[in-house]
């Protein structure tokens, strides 16, 4: 029996796999180029040259960018926003979703209607900016956290997931003397760990890659996030882009190698975490889609 017969592969499968392999390679090439340029010796770097393998390996660009105060400050800012924002997102989303599952709760239908309304309609940038300004959050990390404590899609998905949990478990817990808070902590939270794991990744990646809100609300360069700093390095092609990163050495390292090193450092945490937690992303898409 041939390999094709064992695996049940058809000519269409071979064509499909070949095309997918080509597309995958094309998608990987930009990442290879970024890594290659970032690891190229600045003295051997030639502008406007395509690199797949560095001619001379060097970590000079990484040492340079890691020695700048602006990069360290932006890393701390992004880390704080990601950790604090993710924790608050989980608390608000899961507690509110649990409340919306209670059919006897006063005003439940009205609140659920408001959530669905925000899913369909958005106030826009100007009202959001005015709200943040009136709250006194401009140029504050909380301007990137408080306005986005949760969102309609997350609430609906988590609520659907909690609706699928057996009500008998809650009834048994109440018979044992648990109130609503203890039921939520001891019963709902342990059963919701797959959803918590998935949405932890969703929220963390969203905060780590936060750019537009930071661009609008943060004016102090010391509070810039990594994405804002990288934008300055990449888009500002003159010396101002490097100056924003704190470069003041006599020997200027080529700007391109610094840009690529900054890009690699910004996406490295996600690249390291995602392969191990990819199944939670896939599971998160299906959470709440099936009841029973």
From TrEMBL:
<keyword id="KW-0812">Transmembrane</keyword>
<dbReference type="GO" id="GO:0055085">
    <property type="term" value="P:transmembrane transport"/>
</dbReference>
<keyword id="KW-1003">Cell membrane</keyword>
<feature type="transmembrane region" description="Helical">
    <location>
        <begin position="183"/>
        <end position="208"/>
    </location>
</feature>
<feature type="transmembrane region" description="Helical">
    <location>
        <begin position="258"/>
        <end position="277"/>
    </location>
</feature>
<feature type="transmembrane region" description="Helical">
    <location>
        <begin position="110"/>
        <end position="129"/>
    </location>
</feature>
<dbReference type="GO" id="GO:0005886">
    <property type="term" value="C:plasma membrane"/>
</dbReference>
<keyword id="KW-0813">Transport</keyword>
<keyword id="KW-0472">Membrane</keyword>
<feature type="transmembrane region" description="Helical">
    <location>
        <begin position="12"/>
        <end position="35"/>
    </location>
</feature>
<feature type="domain" description="ABC transmembrane type-1">
    <location>
        <begin position="75"/>
        <end position="277"/>
    </location>
</feature>
<dbReference type="InterPro" id="IPR000515">
    <property type="entry name" value="MetI-like"/>
</dbReference>
<dbReference type="Pfam" id="PF00528">
    <property type="entry name" value="BPD_transp_1"/>
</dbReference>
<feature type="transmembrane region" description="Helical">
    <location>
        <begin position="79"/>
        <end position="98"/>
    </location>
</feature>
<protein>
    <submittedName>
        <fullName>Carbohydrate ABC transporter permease</fullName>
    </submittedName>
</protein>
<comment type="similarity">
    <text>Belongs to the binding-protein-dependent transport system permease family.</text>
</comment>
<dbReference type="InterPro" id="IPR035906">
    <property type="entry name" value="MetI-like_sf"/>
</dbReference>
<keyword id="KW-1133">Transmembrane helix</keyword>
């Amino acid at each position: 029996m041939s390999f094709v017969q064992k695996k049940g592969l058809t000519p269409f499968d071979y064509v499909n796999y070949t095309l997918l392999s080509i597309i995958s390679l094309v998608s990987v090439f930009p990442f290879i180029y970024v890594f290659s340029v970032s690891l190229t010796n600045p003295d051997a770097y030639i502008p406007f040259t395509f690199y797949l393998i560095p001619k001379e390996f060097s970590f000079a660009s990484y040492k340079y960018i890691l020695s700048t105060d602006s990069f360290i400050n932006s890393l701390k800012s992004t880390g704080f926003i990601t950790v604090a924002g993710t924790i608050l997102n989980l608390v608000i989303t899961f507690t509110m979703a649990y409340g919306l599952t209670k059919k006897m709760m006063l005003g439940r239908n009205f609140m659920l209607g408001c959530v669905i309304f925000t899913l369909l309609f958005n106030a826009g940038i100007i009202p959001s900016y005015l709200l943040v300004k009136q709250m006194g959050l401009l140029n504050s990390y909380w301007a990137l956290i408080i306005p986005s404590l949760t969102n309609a899609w997350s609430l609906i998905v988590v609520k659907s997931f909690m609706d699928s949990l057996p009500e008998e478990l809650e009834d048994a817990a109440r018979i044992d003397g648990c109130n609503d808070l203890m039921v939520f902590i001891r019963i709902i939270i342990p059963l919701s760990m797959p959803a918590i794991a998935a949405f932890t990744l969703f929220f963390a990646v969203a905060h780590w890659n936060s750019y537009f809100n930071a661009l609008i609300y943060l004016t102090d360069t010391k509070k810039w996030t990594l994405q804002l700093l990288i934008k300055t390095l990449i888009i500002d092609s003159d010396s101002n882009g490097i100056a924003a990163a704190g470069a003041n050495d006599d020997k200027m390292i080529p700007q391109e190698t610094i840009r690529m090193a900054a890009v690699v450092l910004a996406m490295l945490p996600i690249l390291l975490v995602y392969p191990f937690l990819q199944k939670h992303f896939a599971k998160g898409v299906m959470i709440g889609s099936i009841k029973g």
